[in-house]
Amino acid sequence: MILKYDCKHFPGDRPCDYHKHEGVKCDDCPYYEKSDFKILIIKLDAIGDVLRTTSILQGLKEKYPSSHLTWITRKDSLELFIGNSFVDEVYTLESNETNYFLSTEKYNLVLNLDPSPVSSAICSSVHGDEKLGFGLNENGKVYLLNSEAIEWFEMGAFDDLKKKNTQTYQSIIAKISRIDSKRQDIILQLSDKEIEFAEQFRNRLKLNPRSKIIGMNTGASPRWQYKQWTYEGFENLIKKILDETNFYVFLYGGHYEKERNQRLSLIDYNRVINTGTDNTLRHFFALLNLCDLLVTGDTLALHAATALNKKVVALFGPTSSAEIETYGRIQKITSDLDCLVCYKMTCDFKPNCMNSISHNLVFNEIIKALQTA
Description:
single chain, alpha/beta, Rossmann fold, 2 domains, six-stranded parallel sheet, 34% helix, globular
């Protein structure tokens, strides 16, 4: 009997899944895949950015079909990779074991797409034949590893370049990664159990199956105060939807949106549904999958809905709408102020970029989006 310990499916300390489920052994195993090209992706922050960075995975697999792909991130993003067949291993920055793996393993390709000092330090410290993106030099300064990363580097340094940019995030990181793929899908795979959880939630409500569900992700990270639309905007939009359509409204959010969503749900107990603000990340995704269209700011929910093939009406203020790939399903709304893409965390302008977006405009975009195939 031969033990093929170089197979990507062999964990080392236990039988592989194929042996456990089918009883196959290495001698004649049809699933044997040699790990002859190892890739490390470093993407730590934030959860939404980690999720949308999965758009490079299909391109990498097309270029390196037999590759073994490892991703290092923070523990908050770990659940994003459940069911992701493109990623073979996920390490978290917070785990002490990660240091042992990274100091021992050697990679053929290391990708660091974020010019943060921590990500760049990891990139510089690991063993890799080729490194792309950003590293950290002996003086503690971030530097370029390849010329394709210069535009992204400069946009992070100069506000005027960020504002002028017309490229999507997906196209930018594909260029840095030196992949050319027509498919740049964000990868988020729900399990059968998660889909069943959401269906049970819906069945308990006894909704009219002929009525559309408009999801509203009402908040955003507290770091970016003006990524989220105003309470009055959501309130007036809900009332208009209730008055002029037979749609249901599903409210989404986290613990920061608890009070806001509770108040909005009082508008109509029967047609405005609070999906809860203490769901796990995976249950949040599953419940998000129930809506036909999502209204949201530039948040994790935007990228998750995109990955779930939902139609989206996205509202933008301080962040770049140009960076968002539409996939033919996203309608972008920005105000007509000239101070957009400021990346300010607070603002004292009156009106500001978010309270100048009218609920009538958002409603019209919802109707238009639902009428398209």
